[in-house]
Design brief:
12 strands; globular; ligase; 2 domains; EC 6.3.4.15; BPL_LPL_catalytic; SH3 type barrels; 258 residues; alpha+beta
Length: 258
């Protein structure tokens, strides 16, 4: 394991721990993994079931890009996790779900939570939290969420969690560094997903399907065909009347009829 990746038996939240470490100046690539968490969380503050046997990892990221473009980090990290699992021969049935989940067989395999902050010197950084169900599949289904699935449900033989941790940790850092370099070589007004847009769309599920966009409160915002996600990370839905675009903070998508 890399010396910058620390593994502990249990903590409240690896993201919380590294947000504090980042504020104290922890460098790019500082990683913290836990066997279990007592206060794991996902997007919009949803509880993340963090029982032992799964991959629970957070990484401090300090990419040299405009902090306004940190919104691309979830997609970049999702692609990196997918690539790491693919390297292990585990990704045959795995897709990405906008904006930050890994799914398989219509169920949630993992999630990514990116939180941006500034350290005590005012410098921007982000913490990328990654949770992947490996040997334990949570039974609780959050309101409006997908039922869970684990890597062990998809494959007869799954590598040890520590091996997967090492692969995912390095894949995410490498992917973020490459993304930052490519983004800085583009025009200043390029969207944060521009360097990975084609690859991201290629792994995204429900493209071309009928979906419903719902607000964080569960209200229906639109229904129509999920056409694409643009370079700025907005889901584009073709309704009967027009093309609607939604930022990830505004909406979640579900297939029609589910």
């Amino acid at each position: 394991m890399d010396l910058r990746l620390t593994v502990v038996d249990v903590t409240g939240s690896t993201n919380d721990d590294l947000l504090e470490a980042g504020k104290q100046g922890a460098p790019h690539g500082t990683g913290l993994a836990a066997r279990a968490q007592t206060a794991g969380r996902g997007r919009r503050g949803h509880k993340w079931d963090s029982t032992a046997g799964n991959l629970l990892l957070s990484i401090v990221l300090r990419p040299c890009v405009n902090p306004a473009k940190y919104s691309g980090l979830a997609a970049v990290s999702g692609l990196a996790v997918h690539a790491a699992l693919e390297k292990q021969g585990l990704a045959n049935e795995i897709d990405l779900k906008w904006p930050n989940d890994l799914v398989a067989r219509g169920r949630k395999l993992g999630g990514i939570l990116v939180e941006a902050a500034r350290d005590n010197e005012g410098k921007p950084f982000a913490v990328c939290g990654i949770g992947v169900n490996v040997n334990y599949t949570p039974q609780e289904v959050p309101d409006g969420g997908l039922a869970a699935i684990g890597l062990s449900d998809l494959n007869e033989s799954v590598p040890a969690v520590d091996m997967l941790l090492d692969e995912v940790y390095h894949a995410v850092i490498d992917a973020v560094d490459t993304w930052a370099e490519r983004l800085n070589a583009m025009e200043e007004d390029a969207g944060p997903l521009a360097p990975v847009h084609g690859e991201y769309i290629g792994h995204l599920n429900w493209i071309g399907d009928h979906v419903i966009a719902r607000s964080p409160a569960g209200d229906e915002l639109a229904r129509g065909i999920f056409q694409t996600v643009d370079d700025f990370g907005r889901a584009c839905i073709e309704t009967e009347d027009d093309l609607r675009s939604f930022h990830f903070e505004e909406a979640s998508l579900r297939p029609m009829g589910k």
